[in-house]
Specification:
Strand content: under 5%
Largest sheet: 3 strands, antiparallel
Keywords: Cell cycle, Cell division, Chromosome partition, Cytoplasm, DNA integration, DNA recombination, DNA-binding
Pfam families: Phage_int_SAM_1, Phage_integrase
CATH superfamily of the largest domain: Intergrase catalytic core
Subunit structure: Forms a cyclic heterotetrameric complex composed of two molecules of XerC and two molecules of XerD.
Family: Belongs to the 'phage' integrase family. XerC subfamily.
Order of helices and strands: HHHHHHHHEEEHHHHHHHH
Mean pLDDT: 84
Main location: cytoplasm
Oligomer: single chain
Radius of gyration: 23 Å
Number of domains: 2
CATH architecture of the largest domain: Orthogonal Bundle
Shape: globular
Number of strands: 3
CATH topology of the largest domain: hpI Integrase, Chain A
Length: 313
């Protein structure tokens, strides 16, 4: 399959036009069709390669040296990008060059000589439990689809799911009587997320009172759980906007996002005494090191551990 692909790609890359752009397009197609990466991941790689093409200009990829690529990293820093974006840009470039090497377009992969970008891991923002209550009741009966919005907020906080995961939830993924839902996370990995009684109750209210009206507007998306006012699948961006809207109404920090509710889910579980491994499983983290950051967020838990175990506490 790989040999066949090399025969198909090379003539395309040697034709007229922007060679670097065609290499990037072939690489993105490879990520989608052969690596089966998530759409958001592919989109991130595509954005990184667009930046690289902008910097590359009239240079030829095959003639680049390590010093040139170091200049590219410096150029990324001058674009006022976040440290995490710059670090991902370097990783994207390394994977892109490995692909070109695999296809026989490059002999040597000079990007491997670039060092990894070190970034500080920021402490995630967390919403206090009493403010969570205010947020959950922020949608009022005067709002056009307040039942849907309350169900959305409750489900985000109850499951710790990402906005993209909730956007892609289907009706048959949600089991209200059993109290769980099945979601698909990064890398198309599936996991079971427990669904609290309060969340199940608000979702059921939305399903019975509002959703039937929305499905009539666009039957093609009727399989999805959360629908927009036009009956289409509620997008990740729309979910972010709704959370921002109700956070502002509840008087919470304007920086609050669906990911803040995910952070709050993990932090509040640990504060209640949940085992770190269980939280890791519910969050869908591949490594427990990712989950451990929440032990630094919960100051009350740290104080309790210190009081219990330090000889002079």
């Amino acid at each position: 399959m790989a040999r066949l692909r090399r025969k198909l790609v090379r003539p395309q890359l040697q034709s007229r036009g922007n060679v670097a752009a065609r290499m990037s397009a072939a690489f993105v197609d490879y990520l989608q069709s052969e690596c089966h990466l998530a759409a958001n991941t592919v989109a991130a790689y595509r954005r990184d390669l667009v930046r690289f093409e902008k910097w590359l200009g009239s240079r030829e990829i095959c003639s680049l040296k390590v010093s040139d690529l170091a200049d590219y990293v410096a150029w990324l820093h001058r674009q006022d990008l976040a440290p995490a974006t710059i670090a991902r840009g370097v990783v994207s470039l390394k994977i892109f060059f490995r692909y070109l090497q695999l296809e026989g377009i490059l002999q040597d992969n000079v990007v491997e000589l670039l060092g990894s970008q070190k970034i500080w891991r920021r402490i995630p923002s967390v919403v206090a439990p009493h403010m969570i209550d205010d947020l959950m009741t922020a949608p009022w009966s005067e709002d056009p689809y307040w039942r849907r919005d309350r169900a959305l907020l409750e489900l985000l906080y109850a499951t710790g799911c990402r906005a993209s995961e909730v956007s892609n939830l289907r009706l048959d993924d949600v089991h209200l009587d059993e109290g769980y839902c099945k979601c698909e996370g990064k890398g198309s990995k599936q996991r079971i997320a427990p669904l609290a009684r309060k969340a199940a109750s608000t979702v059921r209210s939305y399903l019975e009172a509002e959703r039937p009206k929305l499905t009539k507007k666009n039957p093609r998306d009727a399989a999805y759980l959360f629908l927009s006012r036009r009956g289409k699948r509620l997008s990740r961006i729309a979910i972010w906007e709704l959370v921002k809207k109700y956070a502002a109404r509840a008087g919470i920090d304007p920086e609050v996002s669906p990911h803040s509710l995910r952070h709050s889910f993990a932090t509040h579980l640990l504060a209640g005494g949940a085992d770190l491994r269980h939280v890791q499983e519910m969050m869908g983290h591949a490594s427990i090191a990712t989950t451990q950051i929440y032990t630094h967020v919960d100051q009350s838990r740290l104080k309790k551990v210190h009081t219990q175990f330090h000889p002079r506490a």
